[in-house]
Fold each of these.
Amino acid sequence: MQLETYISDLLYRYDCVIVPQFGAFLTHRVSAKVHETTHSFYPPKKALSFNEQLQTNDGLLANYMAEVEKIPYQVAVEKIAKQVKAIKSYLVEGKTIALNNIGDLILNSEGKINFEPSLHINYLTDAFGLSQFTSGDITREVYKEKVEKIEKVIPLTITPETRKSRPYLRYAAIALIALTIGGFAASKLYVDQIENQNQLAQEEANEQLDAKIQEATFIIDSPIPAATLTVEKPTGNYHIVAGAFRVEANSEKKIQQLRDQGFKAREIGVNRYGLHEVVYSSHIDRNEALKALRTIKRTHNREAWLLVKAVD
């Protein structure tokens, strides 16, 4: 089944992949962990789950299929619907649907879909190449005892003869420290003088620049009159929805297509599912919006619908 391959590809890049009229495969990040008993280290991963309630087509899966197979978007939507129909029929017959690299689907006694995710694949790209491993115990106390035994046998001391044998080194060190401190003091004084001179020069340059700006401001004899532009802003709480897209680039592409066809299309924001909503137009009057919706459903898109929403 090619559908499972497309879903698996998208799970690496997105946290939600919706299969229209079937459900959504969701991922959430799980941090790395250590098993205290077995001393096993597990890398971070994306845990996979299934939500049967999310069935509205967001265009992600269909757009990806259309791009890979070089087919029109609507053809991709029809192919997905056909495969979903086949999956549902197998589930009703009591069969288990095994989706490679994703997991197993089966109907329970209540007619709901149970999902068992596959555990052998990690969709978190940040953890690529990381695998589970087990570490042995760290024996810190053993090495500590060995070091203590060595110190008892070979003590580390400094004899008085060593200290008195080279008294001139002490005076050389004191002289070196004194020279270093004197050099730092002289260097700091020189740097401070340079910074003060730079500050005075900068202030003088700023005063000259302000004078030039004021002079240039007051010698304008014929100022250009201010221009007033009137920009028409789409308003209204009645919106005719063309689609909702998870990828913003797809929504921008849809807007351009609709504008080329004469519609006042725009994006009205992101809904609670994280989808970018694209509308044909927005209207203040409800009757006007319903009239426009009937025209669009009859001549352009039977799936268009009316959304009542306040948009800034």
Amino acid sequence: MSDGLQVSDGLPQSTGDFYERLRAYEGKAAAEAGRGKDPVNEPMIRHWCEAMGDAHPAYTGPDAVAPPTMLQAWTMGGLAGHTARSAAYDELTALLDGAGYTSVVATDCEQEYLRPLRVGDEITFDAVIESVSEEKTTKLGTGHFVTTRMDVRTNGELAGTHRFRILKYAPVQRKPRGERPRPVINRDNEGFWAGVREHTLLIQRCGECEVLRFPWLPGCNACGSDAWDTVEASGEGTVYSYVVMHHPPFPAFDPPYAVGLIELAEGVRMVSNVVGVPHDKVRIGMPVRLEFQRVDADLEIPVFRGGEG
């Protein structure tokens, strides 16, 4: 492969010549003569504080200052972006893309605060490509860390600096799909899994106070009795809460996928996959219906099928 690269197992391997080409961009501008789209203002401060749960009195009233951690927010270009980004930064990105480092992830940032920002302050900024790392291998893949430093000013005075680091990398090739991990079955929950094998979802019921409980436990967490029987769930439920799993990948799973905390019609809640709808269409309150999904020759699991309606 040309341009100072070697290829091993389908992934680029940087040579010294290629790395020197990357380092030539250190010290070059990443953004020039940038200007905040809005001056520092009360509505944005209020929204930020509400989102962060920060009720500090310094952020309200006639003498309000902006939370220091909003430093980068005043420089962001929104969906339309900024015209301040430099040609050098685009060239560096294109060079990495052309070498096979086509994926990107933000890894961390560092901020330094030099003076408070007050309502009405006009924001300007410049940024420089501070460093490009040697090739590094991570769980995501092999690539280069690129660090930019942004100097944020108000009325020409330096208000703070923001260092932002990304990893431009070639993704690790996925390993063949592996076997799904086995559930841990013990004397306390073996009745539940016996029910699953018969395509029934069994909920424990206390033999004394008749409180339903899930997951299965050796004793009642309401009255302490160790007497119990079971009731069969109807299979109807709603999504009480959920997460979408993106990372880290595991050979037996295929992210992204939705994992829901399902509130059953009987009042107990259980965790399982939400299937039948795209992961980004799952919503709190969505009605779901129990079904049993075979994941390999020896294992079926209860999952919940949602509907987009």
Amino acid sequence: MNYLSSSSQNKTDCILVVDDSPDNVLLVQTILEEEGYDIVTAENGSSALAIIEQSPPDLVLLDVMMPGMDGYEVTRRVRQNAKLPFIPILLITAYDQSSLVQGLDMGADDFIRKPVELDELLARVRSLLRLKHSVDERDQIARQREDFVSRLTHDLRTPLVAANQMLNLLQQGALGEITPQCAEVFSTMARSNQNLLSMVNILLEVYRYEAGRKNLNFFPVDLKQLIGEVSQELTPLADSKSLSLNLHLDGDGEKTPGGGGAVMGDRLELHRLFTNLIANAIQYTDTGSIDVRLVAKPIAKSEPRLVTVEVQDTGVGIAMDDQVKLFERFRQATHKRGGSGLGLHLSRQIVEAHQGTIDVISEVGKGSVFIVRLPAASAT
């Protein structure tokens, strides 16, 4: 299936020709216009950058030796501008091999020597435009996929939420008295619906992060307080499995900069992170305990200050082969227990968005320790 629209397939490629010599510009322009390309010209590097930023071309033919800003500097600035789409750059040069290496290192895609030969010029132009079209098609397919999943998960939430509310009404007897058998069925339906709603929410969050559409609000967050809240919310789940949920939140925090585990972060996302890690520990533990430790140990002044949170369980553990791919999308361990394969991937997205790291240490049959390290908030 071709995902590109007919308008994008049929549009004429636009080529920017940059050279301080009017004769050279006229020659190249005449050759390319005869091949059906739209040509825009610039006589220096500054003008070229202005054109590129205002209306990015499909290809840039760039002379290396120009007064003021040379072709190398133009190439460097184009490649540093993250707002620009991918634009192939073909350097036109009479320089030696070392200078060509410099241009390619700056981000140019190809080069052609002066005096320019017609057939070689057209061949290199066609080659770079094929590269441009390939990259554009790949990016458009990726955007369409992300939009599809985002829209799908968003639209799925509405009927799931409605079904959840209706099931709650049924369980409360709002529509009439229910028998014990019906109550058991409604309870199973509500639990399954809630699990599905949770999966849809996680999927939606994952794609928001991956599409760069997740907006975070950073404020000082007291992890000691936040983890206490998460523990309170999950204690009934641990109690239902006769597991002890133990918090060790004092540690060295009160004696170190950023004492008490203060970090700069989005509180809602950090709440989601630790809820996921602690709930996972409960889910994959049948006997024993879950221990949550907050550590803010003194470190060298030359290193960034970190707050570490460890979530340790006495559960089934994770095989070494599974640990390597544990934080990837839709990856599940081989312990044959439920899970979407997205929770830990989302956890890593949240941690990395906070400039932190997440690791796991585990042994099959002996449990796991998930270790989150986040930059400590600056002392006031």
Amino acid sequence: MTPGARVQAAIEILDLVIDAARAGGAPADRLIADWFRARRFAGSKDRRAVRELAYRAIRVCGEIPESGRAAMLRVAAEDPELAALFDGEGHAPAAIAADEPVAEAGLAPRWLVDRFAGSGVSERDAAALLGRASLDIRVNTLRQGDLDLPEGGERSETAHGWRYPPETRIEQTEAYLQGAIEVQDTGSQLTCEVVAARPGETVIDLCAGAGGKTLALAAAMENRGVLIACDADRTRLSRLPPRAERAGATGIETVLLDPNKEMQALQRFAESADAVMVDAPCSGTGTWRRNPEARWRLTEAQLARYTAVQARLLDVAAQLVRPGGRLVFVTCSLLDEEGANQADGFLKRNPGWQAAAPVLPVGTRRGAGLRLSPWHDGTDGFFVARFERL
């Protein structure tokens, strides 16, 4: 592909991403993969270049762009070499007209920028949400053996974590294929450490999804005890058993939940769990480094629904914890509505609980918990709070 053809390809992909963002369709990475799957002529360098152009445009546009061309013109406005490729030659995009629309640069839609400011998120922290994330791994102590880690990594702040450059092909390494390492953001690993799961305990992962945090809890428990992985999404939860087998994690019981009827499925664990982790559904504002187009999808109404679900799940979790036990609340968000305010609301609704500030090597105190962020801590954005039942 010529340089101009790569720009045109990125524009076509951006149109798909924008349409999907408006309609709640597939994420950008899947759309990009599908686009190239139908165009086998594109080589690896072409795919990489087009992908980088598309994500460059996604990251620079705050409001959702009018079109893929408008998004790419925003990038071209600051890059004369890129602008010169709009010449209409061959498969290149048409020449730039003086009056055509150019997308607006910015961090996010204006209402979200206001919410960040109200949550005490600095401009540096907010801007870092649109940088590139490193590739973080967790050494799986259940399969560690004679571990031969890939080269190029450095230790992270977690007990078993390493950090690699984002382009590292970790999933092609022998260590990954053997289940000796798991891809997991450093912040995600740290939130699992707050749970402090121990061998022989009863631990419930109330919002397990595909089980990334469940596997970390299983390793901490050394496959001894009762570990329950729950979720309301059957498809996501079905991915956990094969992952657990690969990781050598045994004894994990999966429980499919019916929204608003969680205690019907979990009644046998009422007031018996040593620890419950609530990695609640949230806006995902802390994961924009990996999914920058997600900020175009979020609405105020969706955020309100997330916060309502979070409060309800916290109250469900409280019914599962034994006296003296602990509850850990986690969201991938920097918004106080999904963090400090949510923790305060839980304590007001549940007088038999107290906050126990998490002790981690990184993080900034925010209300009853800790906030982790890309700028300060090199992690995805998280809020984590720990509560103890009196």
